[in-house]
Design goal:
By secondary structure, the protein is mainly alpha-helical. It contains 2 helices and no strands. The longest helix is centred in the first third of the chain and has 23 residues. The chain is rod-shaped, with a radius of gyration of 25 Å.
Length: 59
């Protein structure tokens, strides 16, 4: 019976974490960001396009 009581600790921890997540509004947490370098490349390309577009209008 003592070993079964130790199984209740992770169960209660999981229930407490679920209640906390529900209470704070994080029902569907976002997935981790794996495309950081691709996002940086897109940002750099967008900056180049926008800056060249402004120079074209000024000329």
């Amino acid at each position: 019976m003592g070993a079964l009581l130790w199984l209740l600790i992770p169960l209660f921890a999981g229930i407490a974490a679920s209640v906390w997540a529900w209470g704070t509004g994080r029902r569907n947490p976002s997935p981790p960001d794996h495309n950081t370098w691709e996002d940086l490349d897109r940002y750099q390309q967008l900056r180049i396009v926008l800056s060249s577009n402004e120079h074209a209008r000024m000329a």
